[in-house]
Design a protein that fits this description.
By secondary structure, this protein is mainly α. Among the domains are: 115 residues, no CATH class; 29 residues. The chain is built from seven helices and two strands; from the N terminus they run βαβαααααα. The protein has a two-stranded parallel sheet. α1 links the parallel β1 and β2. The protein is rod-shaped, with a radius of gyration of 56 Å. The two termini are 95 Å apart.
Length: 310
């Protein structure tokens, strides 16, 4: 038996693989039913999909094996029945051999009895005995009122014994014939039904339906995962948009302050501008003096700033 379950599932970049595989030439959602190839993306690691697939596969395999096993059991049951009838017939044939030997023994004793009583084969007594035997075998009732002789009584007793042997032979042969006819009918019906072939085809249909179930399961799971990823990307885009707006607001405030400062400088008198410059120069000189006194090079001081408002 060969049960095929050709499903190939690739994992990787969900955005690239799944979307590319699902879109057919017309742009509609689809998948390759012939090859049963699906790009499942990274979601196989994030969702218990693999366990679901394994469970469905195990259930389908169990159903398929049960179909085949039931067919196999039924087939073996027929084989056993055929074998049982053949064995029974063989025993009946052996029993027939014994019954035939018993009949030969009865015939031998009947002949010895005739010779012992000195009855000739063509005598009236012997012919009368044979008519009695024929009536018994055919089921007729003898109308003769003549009492049988001692020889005839003993010969009829042997005939009754032989009749039992012949009856057993007939019963055995009837059962042998019945067994032969039943076995022939079973073999003929098996040739028509193809039980194991049909069971295999049904099992393969079960596994084929499993393929469709898994494809649908993977497809649905992948679509749901893509929807979740899309929602995440939309949320991230909203956050980026919000941050961009905040930066724009900050930049607007900076621009406003710079404009206010430029306006303030423009409105400041020349004398105040000179005083401000002089003050800044004096502060720089004081800082340089402190650095020189500490025997420090100006480049060793990193990030020092002068507050212009001092």
């Amino acid at each position: 038996m060969k049960l095929q379950n050709n499903i190939t599932i690739f994992s990787g970049d969900t955005r690239n693989n799944v979307q590319a595989e699902w879109k057919n030439k017309e742009g509609t959602d689809s998948y390759d039913k012939k090859s049963r190839t699906i790009y499942a993306g990274n979601f196989l690691k994030e969702f218990p999909l693999r366990e679901k697939i394994q469970q469905k596969r195990a259930e389908a395999q169990q159903r398929a094996m049960k179909i085949v096993q039931d067919a196999w059991d039924a087939d073996r049951q027929l084989d056993n029945e055929i074998k049982m009838r053949e064995e029974e017939s063989e025993k009946l044939r052996e029993d027939n051999q014994a019954e035939l030997e018993n009949l030969k023994d009865v015939n031998r004793r009947s002949e010895e009895l005739r010779e012992a009583f000195g009855v000739d084969k063509d005598s009236e007594e012997q012919q009368e005995l044979e008519r009695m035997i024929q009536d018994r075998r055919s089921g007729k009732i003898s109308l003769s009122k003549k009492e049988p002789t001692e020889y005839q009584r003993r010969a009829l007793a042997l005939e009754d014994e032989a009749a039992r042997y012949r009856s057993q032979l007939a019963a055995n042969n009837g059962k042998i014939l019945e067994n032969s006819e039943v076995n022939a009918a079973i073999r003929k019906e098996r040739l028509k039904s193809h039980t194991m072939v049909d069971a295999q085809a049904e099992a393969e249909n079960v596994m084929e339906s499993l393929t469709d179930e898994i494809v649908g399961l993977v497809t649905e799971e992948a679509k749901e995962h893509l929807d979740e990823e899309q929602e995440k990307r939309e949320e991230q885009a909203e956050k980026i948009e919000e941050q961009k707006k905040e930066q724009e607001e900050i930049q607007e405030k900076r621009d406003e302050r710079e404009k206010e400062l430029e306006k303030l400088i423009e409105e400041m008198p020349v004398e105040e501008m000179a005083n401000l410059q002089q003050t800044m120069d004096e502060v720089k000189q004081q800082v340089q003096k402190v650095l020189n006194e500490a025997n420090l090079a100006a480049e060793d001081v990193k990030g020092a700033k002068v507050d212009a408002s001092v």
